[in-house]
Amino acid sequence: MKQLVRNKSSLVGGIILLFFILIIILAPLLMTHSYQSTDILNRFAPPSADNWFGTDQNGRDIFSRIIYGTHLTMFIGVVSVFFGAVFGILLGLVSGYYGRWVDTIIMRAADVMLAFPGILLALAIVSALGASMFNVIIALSIYNIPVFARIVRGSVLEVKGIEYVEAIRALGAKDGKIIFQHILPNVSSPIIVQASLQIATSILSAAGLSFLGVGVQPPEPEWGAMLNDGRSYMWENPHLTIFPGIAIVLLVLSFNMLGDGLRDALDPRSKK
């Protein structure tokens, strides 16, 4: 923990992330207007004392929509990584522990999935399932599975040959006990680091899908969808895209910086 606090990258990332978490908690108090209310007579209003970030093409308050959209964006990123990690960890543990044909099948499947750019794979899945927040989470979860499977598998290969694991196996311990009680705790560090980095990737991918019109659908104020709504007016009214864009950059940056700090703290060998 001391190393994490001393690391400037993780400290800055943690502060920014804490800021967004507070926004989620205090959202009802922070929103100056209803995120859904429209005012056609006040369309494209520039930032002012009444509308801090201005209004969009429907006269909706951009500040309130970004505040409300924080929990949508965070929810998609965290939940998709959670489910992707659960299945990926299980596959990685099985692949690394049993090896042989089991390892070959799982890793070849993972290689095929990882051969496609993440956003392209997610786009194909969402296009097949239909545009919705639920389907975006499914698509990103599926993409995250091979990422965690490969990382866990590599860590298991290092750990399972350690003497005390061999001793436990020689004493007749069942495979399930060895895997979950002795191997999994020893491969948790790279999982934690990768989870932080994957949340950032998932948030960016979700915003990209919404920007392309196949993610979270209007009128929900997901940040990528807000960029999509404002792109037709960005030259005359840049505030429609500037503020959602800044929000995406800051949230993604916070998880990336936190992940880099976690890597340095949990895996000293990664330091150059």
Mean pLDDT: 89
Number of helices: 11
Q: Beta-strand level of the residues, as a percent range?
A: under 5%
Q: Ends: how far apart? A: 20 Å
**Alpha-carbon Rg, integer:** 22 Å
Task: Give the proportion of residues in helices.
Answer: over 70%
CATH homology-level superfamily: MetI-like
The coarse overall form would be elongated
How many structural domains does the protein architecture include? Answer: 1
SSE order: HHHHHHHHHHH
Content-based structural category = mainly alpha
User: What's the CATH C level?
Assistant: Mainly Alpha
Q: What's the main sheet like?
A: none
Low-confidence stretches: none
Number of strands: 0
The CATH architecture designation is Orthogonal Bundle
CATH topology: MetI-like fold
Descriptive notes:
It is a single chain. With 272 residues, the chain is mostly helical. The protein has one domain (69-267): MetI-like (MetI-like fold, Orthogonal Bundle). 72% of the residues lie in helices and 0% in strands. The chain contains eleven helices and no strands. The protein has helices spanning 2-6, 8-30, 62-98, 100-114, 118-129, 133-159, 163-170, 175-183, 188-211, 223-230, 239-266. Helix 4 (100-114) packs across helix 6. The longest helix is centred in the first third of the chain and has 37 residues, at 62-98. The mean pLDDT is 89.
